[in-house]
Amino acid sequence: MDLRHCPFCGKPAQCKVEEDHHGNFYSLGCSNSDCVAHEIYYAVPEEDLPMEQAAFNWNRRFI
Ligand SMILES: [Zn+2]
To answer: Fewer CB atoms inside 10 A, N or C side of the chain?
Structure first.
């Protein structure tokens, strides 16, 4: 599933997998660091999934 471009500034959105002491998580946000859109985070489940779910949520977020 493709990410929609940012609804605020029109730049491409990005989804990264990051890691902290709690484990892995997805970070979805705008690729423009000056943008007002805040990044949103999803824990990465043990089963693989949801880059797709994360993308789905991002795409619905600003409707
Ligand atoms: Zn943006």
So the answer is: C
